[in-house]
What we know:
Layout: E1 2-3, E2 6-7, E3 11-14, E4 17-21, E5 32-35, H1 38-46, H2 53-70, H3 74-85, H4 93-106, H5 110-147, E6 156-160, H6 177-184, E7 189-194, H7 201-213, E8 216-220, H8 225-230, E9 236-239, E10 243-245, E11 250-253, H9 256-265, E12 270-273, E13 279-280, H10 286-289, H11 298-301, E14 302-306, E15 312-316, E16 329-332, E17 339-342, E18 345-347, H12 351-357, H13 359-364
The structure holds 5-S-methyl-1-O-phosphono-5-thio-D-ribulose.
Binding site for substrate: 51-53, 88, 201, 252-253
Pfam families: IF-2B (PF01008)
Active site: 242
Amino acid sequence: xxxxxxxxxxxxxxxxxxxxxxxxxxxxxxxxxxxxxxxxxxxxxxxxxxxxxxxxxxxxxxxxxxxxxxxxxxxxxxxxxxxxxxxxxxxxxxxxxxxxxxxxxxxxxxxxxxxxxxxxxxxxxxxxxxxxxxxxxxxxxxxxxxxxxxxxxxxxxxxxxxxxxxxxxxxxxxxxxxxxxxxxxxxxxxxxxxxxxxxxxxxxxxxxxxxxxxxxxxxxxxxxxxxxxxxxxxxxxxxxxxxxxxxxxxxxxxxxxxxxxxxxxxxxxxxxxxxxxxxxxxxxxxxxxxxxxxxxxxxxxxxxxxxxxxxxxxxxxxxxxxxxxxxxxxxxxxxxxxxxxxxxxxxxxxxxxxxxxxxxxxxxx
Length: 365
Ligand code: MRU
């Protein structure tokens, strides 16, 4: 995707180094950071310089390679796995990528491990781009079907939550890929962007992406979705996922569940777009079993933004003594999900639906 005239992925290599965009600085500043050690990669994920399930996975894979370059011994491999695994608890793509690297390089001679891990990390990144493009094509068919019901020139209105765009993946995004392809094909599409408190990934990242791609969009507060749907202003919701269970429960950014409830009450189709690497085939009951990240209370008690003076500032919005809880994700039960948009097609949010598209993965669990 492009920022201005320059094409970007969210992660790339420069010589021996891994380059990322520090997403905590967006949309105010485009800051490129170079990662050269395991600790750099772990910090980038934990401090959310990179975030979004697929990008967390790709960064972790490069983190393994950086660790093995410094020390390829078995103990180093185990430490790197554990260090990266501890960075964030909810997105399953993290474990998926770490497992893939450990499996590929664990049986090699130590001297061959770093190069093999670096190559695999590159493959994971490239494959993510191709996968998201396929998710986009499969989701595009849904947008096209709705567009056919509209008068010429009338936009298809999509509501999305958080950022499941190219910044959350290596490129294209999951939820945004169908939107980008529709836009590129000349189909009028408009996106309602939930601001996504507390960290405002919708306002800071999704709006930034859509704007740079020229996609018509409107930023709304998180609680606007129900009202918009009651008034027929939303044709479909598309969100991403951090972990989807074998039975189709969708874990995603906090507030996704409320959008799904509002969508069901108003007969609005609600889709989650995700790659197979986001499915946790071992988990059946999302509400009971998926670990939900709880982050620092200051993300809720404060807001960060650019002041009119042009400086980025952090201001308190709650009394100093007010206790705060900060649950970062929630689980939308499969019964509220119209369908899962994957790289192999669109399926029902159910065990049969997922196993039908990914029989070899469903069998392995
Ligand atoms: O806390 P974040 O910013 O990592 O949360 C990201 C999301 O919730 C995304 O919707 C999800 O990772 C899907 S990314 C394609």
